[in-house]
Design brief:
291 residues
Amino acid sequence: MRKNVLCVMGCFILWGILPVYWKLLSNLDSLFILANRMVWSLVFCLLILMVTKNLKKIKSALQDKKQLMVTACCGVLITVNWGSYIYAVNSGHILDASLAYYMNPLLSIAIAFVFFKEKLSVQKWAAVAVAFLGIFVTVVQYGTFPYLSLIIGGSFAIYGALKKNVKYEAMVSLFIETMVITPFALIYILYCEYNGIGSMGVLHGTEFLLLPLAGVITAIPLLLYASGVKGIPYSLSGILMYLNPTLQLLLGVFLYKEKFTGSNALMFVCVWIALVLFLLDGKLIRKKKGD
């Protein structure tokens, strides 16, 4: 079990320090970075599937039209998530990205209620109410709306909801998701390079390796998560997940000197209170089952 915990922790730690990598490419257009991430993720997934001799799984996956449609929708959503996240990091909004992943479980609760008709406990309703109260008060008092946080967190929450219906393994699913978007990504990369707004003249020497590395840093955390999550309680995985936004928050404030304003403080306090209510509710449910 210790190995499994370390794998899941490794996944969330890598995601948490990901802003450092995107900052290395901050001189490039965010959409151009996103396009490269899509293409190189596809290439890296293909290599892994070849090495593990799982290419046949792609062929069988492509024959299921219903699953293919759902996975294609996942591809669109993960594109929105990755793109908005890269933009947030490279435009000085790491704190918004951090908030997005603190809010993610709460947004997932709202989606579960609206689309899956799941019944919510009083504490879960309270958690959602406190989180959205923080957003409302911030908008009224400070005149700022956390649109980036909601786009990043919302797209990932909906992505997660759709993934519940995807039967493919993680690497096969990611391959198909990126395959759907890759033709558009390639066109955009060629357009940018042809018009002098791509990587040529901006990156030099070994810096060009940062682009294919995008595929590696995308796939490795997913592999770690997939190999570890089945061997630990899902509740423990949920708690470890908060390593990701916590590391992003620390990086934003202490390494990249983003201002932690009154608006940020109010929003984060409300979300943290909501998370405590959310985690306590889960603990109570497990205790009742144990009884």
